[in-house]
UniProtKB/TrEMBL annotation:
GO CC terms, sorted: efflux pump complex
PANTHER family to which the protein is assigned, alphabetical: HLYD FAMILY SECRETION PROTEIN, MULTIDRUG RESISTANCE PROTEIN MDTA
Top-level taxon of origin: Bacteria
Domain YknX-like C-terminal permuted SH3-like, first and last residues per copy: 340-405
Molecular function GO labels: efflux transmembrane transporter activity
Residue ranges of every copy of the CusB-like beta-barrel domain listed in the record: 252-326
Organism the protein comes from: Thermomonas hydrothermalis
Family: Belongs to the membrane fusion protein (MFP) (TC 8.A.1) family.
Name this polypeptide is given: RND family efflux transporter, MFP subunit
Transmembrane segments: 25-45
Residue stretches in coiled coil: 130-188
């Protein structure tokens, strides 16, 4: 049996025994392992499949006297200064149409032909009248030759008193009459020749030709329809064959509010963005300010040129937005005014504005010093250089050093 002394000895605390293991070291080890795992995951993510992104090029502004900032934005439309509804000069039935929408034509090219039956009949009549007049000239000329010979012979005989003077005077009268008839016949022949030329023009008017180089944007008539330049249309009557536009004459027409028209000057530089191609900035300048205001809208029309006119992407009636740019002051023209970047490329990371530059297949995060807002773009004073490629609409997960690939390149490979 266990005695009471042994039980008391069992309850004693051994002061010399080793202390139990601490849990603090365990937590430190777990934390270090977690950090290692996170770092490894980030490294694996960056080394994994590249992120597909869209990019845009950084554009330099404000150097060498170029426009430095937009003083005004206005909306308008692309218009053609040289546009014509091509029609026949006469009324007639269409025999054939040789054009289609989108077709390029040269000046003088045949676009359509009308039925020439009436015009050719008129020409044949005029040709017959000219032939008859020429035949009459020949007949009168022969008679006049005979009359002049008779008058000369009688002149000799009357001097010898072999014939009466009355016979001689009658011969002279006959000669003068034939001379007058010959002059009349020649005039009639001239009239017949002029009538034939008019008839030739009538036949030529049945052929519709292009008045200038351009592109067909509308085909208005079909074979069998009646075309009349003097008619208002209706039924099967058309006023024209088609509409022709000179694409080299395209420009933008915008309406500027009266309160801001003072900021616009003829010849000042502009930058136009078409609604169909918002990322395409087309340089140009103010051609003219129309000296008339719209009372209802309180606006003034301004004509703006396009340096890229003739480009097939620009077509009439396209919507456009024009930025009127101010010229840098002479004392500022040698100063750096930064670069132009799409606003979609700039994001907030923490307490600073940054952009991600694509370099060597990876992105580099750049802090930016921003300037003015220029339409859909932002002026960047520091942080970027002209010609660099920046990521548009960078995702939240995009970080410095991550591998990327351009979305356009991915689509081409697929």
């Amino acid at each position: 049996m266990t005695t009471s002394a042994e039980l008391l000895n069992a309850l004693k605390i051994d002061r010399n025994a080793a202390p139990p293991p601490s849990r603090k070291g365990l937590w430190i080890g777990l934390a270090v392992a977690g950090v290692v795992l996170v770092v490894g995951a980030v490294i694996a993510l960056r080394a994994g499949k590249p992120v597909a992104v869209r990019t845009a090029e950084v554009v330099a502004i404000g150097s060498g006297g170029a426009a430095s900032a937009a003083v005004l934005d206005a909306s308008g439309y692309v218009v053609a200064r040289r546009m014509a509804t091509v029609s026949a000069k006469i009324t007639g039935r269409v025999r054939e149409v040789l054009i289609e929408e989108g077709q390029k034509v040269k000046e003088g090219q045949v676009l359509a032909r009308l039925d020439p039956v009436d015009a050719e009949a008129q020409r044949a009549l005029s040709a017959s009248q000219l032939a008859a007049s020429e035949s009459q000239i020949a007949s009168v000329q022969a008679q006049l030759t005979q009359a002049e010979a008779d008058a000369a012979r009688l002149a000799t005989l009357v001097q010898q008193s072999l014939v009466s003077r009355a016979q001689y005077e009658q011969a002279l009268a006959q000669r003068d009459t034939l001379r007058a008839q010959l002059a009349t016949a020649r005039r009639n022949a001239q009239v017949a020749a002029a009538s034939l030329r008019i008839a030739d023009n009538g036949v030529d008017n049945t052929v519709v030709r292009a008045p200038f180089d351009g592109v067909i944007i509308a085909k208005a008539a079909q074979p069998g329809e009646i075309v009349s330049p003097l008619s208002a249309g209706g039924g099967f009557t058309r006023t024209g064959i088609g509409t022709l536009v000179d694409m080299e004459s395209l420009e933008v027409e915008v309406e500027v509010g009266e309160a801001y028209i003072g900021r616009v000057k003829p010849g000042m530089p502009t930058q136009t963005a078409l609604n169909a191609y918002p990322d395409w900035k087309i340089p140009g300048k103010v051609i003219a300010i129309i000296p008339a205001a719209d009372r209802g809208k309180a606006t003034v029309k301004v004509r703006v040129s396009l340096d890229a006119r003739g480009d097939p992407r620009i077509v009439p009636d396209m919507g456009a937005r024009v930025s009127f740019l101010e010229e840098a002051a002479p004392q500022q023209r040698n100063e750096t005014t930064g670069v132009l970047v799409p606003a979609a490329a700039i994001v907030r990371r923490g307490d600073k504005d940054v952009a991600f530059v694509v370099s060597g297949g990876k992105v580099v995060e750049r802090p930016l010093v921003l300037g003015r807002t220029l339409g859909d773009d932002r002026q960047v004073l520091r942080g970027l250089s002209a010609g660099e490629q920046v990521v548009l609409e960078p995702p939240e997960t995009l970080a410095d050093g991550m591998r990327v690939t351009r979305a356009a390149d991915d689509e081409e490979q697929q």
